Give the backbone structure.
Amino acid sequence: MSYDVELIRGDFPILDRRVGEYPLAYLDSANTSQKPQVVIDALVDHYERHNANVARAMHVLGAEASAAYEGGREKVAAFIGAARAEEVVFTKNASEALNLAAHSLGAGLKPGDEVVISVMEHHSNIVPWQLLCARTGATLRWFDITEDGRLDLAKASAENLINGNTRIVSLTWASNVLGTINPISQIAAQAHAVGAVMVVDGSQAVPQLTTSVAELGADLVAFTGHKMVGPTGIGALWGRYDLLAEMPPFLGGGEMIEIVKMTGSTYAPPPYRFEAGTPPIAEAVALGVAADYLHELGMADVAAHERDITGYALESLGQIEGVRILGTTSIGPEGRGGAVSFTLRTADGLDIHPHDVMTFLDSRGVAVRGGHHCARPLHERLGITASTRASFYLYTLRSEIDQLVDALDYTRDFFGRVA
Ligand SMILES: Cc1ncc(COP(=O)(O)O)c(C=O)c1O
C-alpha cells in the first residue's frame, strides 16, 4: 500500500484540532511528536487492566505488568535492530540516557584524556560531558561546522581532533536545528581506530530513519520515546552488551542490585543495573506499541515522506524574501532531517525576533518553536541568538507548509509596516 498521509492522520486524534478559526498546523515535531490512538489506548489499557509493579509483585497482575514491560523492551530492541533485548536500558528520556553514558563510561577518565563532541549538539549532549570533564580533569574538544552546517571533517583532521588521547566521541546523528545528518559510521570507525567509545544521540534520527545499531557502528545510542510517537517519560540507551556489562551503575536503588549488605553491594547484569527504582512501566508498554506502529508504517516510507515534505518546505521557505535558512538548503545525497530553522527579516532589514514570529504564527494556527532550541553554542557559532524552527513528521501535509508560508508573509508584512 502506498504511503497515505491523510489516512495516517486519522490515527492521530489531536491533528483534527483547530486553533481559533484556523486548522492546527503542528510543525513542532522535533520538539515532541503527536501520538496515535493505539499508543494512547495502550497507556489507558495498562492502567485499566494490568497495573502493578514489575519484577517485585508476585501475583497475576504483577506477572502481567512485568511481561508487558519486558515486551516493550523487546519491541524497542527489534525496532532498532538490537542483537538482544537486554541491550536496551529504559531511562526517563534521551537526556537521562546521555547522562548515564557520561557518568558510567567516564568513571575512569583522568587528566590528559579527551572527550569529543560537536558544536551542533543539543545541550543534553554537551552538559553531561562538561560535568564529566569538570569531575575528572579530562578535556572537552569539539567538531566545528562548515558554512552549510555539516561537521567540518577537514578542520577536525587538521586539528587531529580524534587522536590517541580520545576516550569518548559523542555526536548527534541528526541535528535538531540544522537537520544535518552526520556520517556516524565513518566517525565511529575513526573513534574505534584510536580505542575510543562512540556514543550517538539518536533523538532526532531514530524517529525518522531506519535504525540498525549494528550498521551505525556506534557503541551506545540514546533516544527518546516522545519524539517517536511514544509517550513522554521514557527514553532508552542502547548499548553493546559487553560494554554495558563493563559499565558501573549510574543511579542506585531497588532492582539494580544483586546483593546489598551494609558493607557494600553488588549489581544486577544489564539492563537492570541501570534501572534503579520503579521504572516507567506503562510508558515502556506504550513505547513498544509506538515502535510497532512505526514499523508497520515502514521506516523507509516514513523517511521518504520526511524527505519529500522537507524538500517542499526548503523550496517554499526559500522563496520568501527575508528568510535565511540555517544550514543546508537542499536535501543532498546524505539526506536531511525534518527540521528547518531560519531567521526572518523585514524588507527594511529589521530582524524579527523568533518569539514574535512564533507568536504571530501561533495566531494563525501554526505551531513552531522559537528560541535556541537547546543548542545555544550552535546559535552563537552561527552569529545569532535565536531562530524559528519548523519541524515535520510522518503526518505533515504540504498544505501545512503552505499555511506556514502564508503566516510568515503576514508576519513579515506586519513588522514591515510597524518598522
Ligand atoms: C538532538 C536532541 N538530543 C537530545 C534531546 C533531549 O531529549 P529529551 O528532552 O527527551 O531528553 C533532544 C530534544 O529536543 C534533541 O533534539
Remarks:
- The chain has a mean pLDDT of 96.
- The chain has two domains: 5-29+298-418, 51-296.
